[in-house]
Write a structure and sequence with these properties.
Helices cover 41% and strands 14% of the residues. The protein is α/β, with parallel strands linked by helices. The chain is globular. The two termini are 43 Å apart.
Length: 484
């Protein structure tokens, strides 16, 4: 994401939008007794290495945009502010290493999600915007495709559009991430051994599967898939294959989502219940996409909400692996986003309690005001801390400018409208960023290494500082040597 044009897309679509490590051991709480550590270690080792070194099942979780500062901030966010020491998060215990995220791009050395996802889905570095193709735009095989070739079941779960960069890079091959209609068509038409490539597809992006793109949803249904659109329908789905489309574009953020929407962990649980029926195993990719989609507009409330949602999905995956000895869980990120800092200004302080008091994300409030709703009413309903009067005046001023530009514009992607939308969201979020002492450096991506967490058979392969392509290479090796 490199321009206001792209930023505006994140603001207006869907919901409208560290730990430094170079150790090979798991992190444990300093307050744990030696007996506790020994008990936990024996339990985990028995589960992870009980019967095979090559996992039959792989759950690969992607925290899109989740840089190291996000993981550290989430630790602050989860802890009692009066405590003298912090308890570890679920992630901390399973910290294995870091990934280098740079792409193979002639002009840029900071990755986007397309190049990042192609790297850890296929083992190939490529240019920004590439989906399942190398730097020469040639198709590259993915771990999901390899799993399907070997008779395993496959799944893609995301809080973004299913045609967005990360899920797309596992099951489609196009030279540009913007070709979302083509990506959706490939999900349907591309088959392996006469079977659909992906058995479970859960996320947003219904607009790419409807009548304007060949009624792909109806075609999936005709081929035996359950096609569902809300949490209740998903819970009632009984078939092994399902297409779940829960929003027209990106799914709402967890803090803003209606009860009828499944959360990331709900989708993951449903996927696992279907994929595990295959005796040959499965590959499942689970993306917490909206960490990134909240960080682009510098929405700290949205970021912490989505980190919490990703934590629940990660915890559930770990629990699943502890009960299924042949399952590997890996969680990492494609890049970091926003340049978020824990504290800003002269005070050595970060105040996550202010974020806990928020009722809605900044992205949600921006969308509501941009649609014409009264700014004071929206802010009152969305904020949990005092909103200064002078800042409210600023919000009203920016909202009027946006309304005027929107009336004049005939293009939904008018860069002036998108830039003004960003100004409005900045005005809305200033009080929470100030009160929490959260700093930001960019609306785009940043290039630092990202953390990798892993548990189960083969998890030691992710130890140390690695290329992001090693994730795919490891999984290819696991499936090649899977104990049948």
């Amino acid at each position: 994401m490199k321009s206001f044009k792209h930023i505006g897309k994140y603001l207006l679509s869907g919901s409208i939008v560290a730990a430094t490590l170079l150790s090979t051991t798991n992190i444990s709480s300093a307050s744990e007794t030696n007996a506790d550590k020994s008990k936990d270690k024996n339990k985990d080792d028995a589960v992870a290495f009980g019967n095979t070194k090559n996992p039959k099942n792989v759950i690969f979780l992607v925290g899109d945009g989740m840089g190291p500062s996000f993981n550290t901030a989430y630790r602050y966010y989860q802890n009692d502010p009066s405590a003298k020491s912090m308890n570890p998060t679920t992630f901390d215990k399973y910290l294995k290493g870091t990934n280098r995220t740079y792409p193979n791009d002639p002009k840029e050395n900071v990755t986007d999600s397309a190049a990042g996802a192609t790297a850890f889905s296929s083992g190939h570095k490529t240019y920004n915007g590439a989906i399942g193709v190398d730097e020469n735009k040639k198709k590259v095989k993915t771990v999901l495709e390899d799993a399907k070739e070997k008779g395993k079941s496959t799944g893609l779960v995301s809080t973004a559009e299913l045609t967005d960069a990360t899920p797309a890079a596992y099951a489609s091959h196009v030279d540009s991430r913007d070709k979302k209609d083509e990506i959706a068509k490939q999900f349907y038409k591309d088959k392996i051994n006469g079977k659909h490539k992906v058995d479970v597809l859960l996320g947003g992006g219904s607009k790419y599967f409807g009548k304007e793109n060949g009624n792909l949803d109806e075609k999936f249904k005709k081929d035996g898939y359950d096609v569902v659109s809300n949490k209740n329908e998903l819970n009632q789905s009984s078939k092994k294959q399902v297409l779940g489309l829960f929003s027209e574009e990106d799914m709402p953020l967890q803090i803003d989502a209606p009860n009828s929407n499944p959360l990331l962990v709900d989708m993951e649980k449903s996927a696992l219940s279907k994929l595990e029926k295959n005796d040959k195993g499965f590959f499942l990719m689970v993306e917490g996409a909206s960490i990134d989609k909240s960080a682009h507009p510098n929405d700290v409330t949205g970021v912490m909400s989505e980190m919490q949602g990703f934590d629940k999905a990660f915890s559930n995956a770990i629990d699943y692996a502890k009960n299924h000895k042949d399952t590997l869980v890996v969680a990492t990120a494609d890049h970091s986003t926003g340049g978020m800092t824990i504290a800003k200004g002269k005070d050595y302080k970060w105040n996550p309690q202010a974020i806990h008091q928020m009722k809605h994300s900044g992205s949600y409030m921006t969308k509501e005001i941009a649609s014409g709703k009264d700014p004071e009413k929206v802010i009152k309903e969305g904020y949990g801390i005092d909103f200064p009067k002078e800042q409210m005046d600023k919000v009203k001023k920016e909202a009027k400018k946006l309304k005027k530009l929107t009336k004049k514009s005939k293009d939904d992607e008018d860069p002036k409208v998108e830039e003004q939308t960003t100004h409005l969201q900045d005005a809305i979020q200033k009080p929470i960023n100030d009160e929490s002492h959260t700093g930001w450096t960019t609306y785009g991506h940043t290039g630092e290494d990202v953390n990798t967490y892993a548990y189960g058979p083969g998890s030691k392969k992710f130890t140390g500082n690695k290329e992001n392509t090693d994730s795919a290479k490891n999984i290819f090796d696991f499936f090649a040597n899977d104990v049948k």
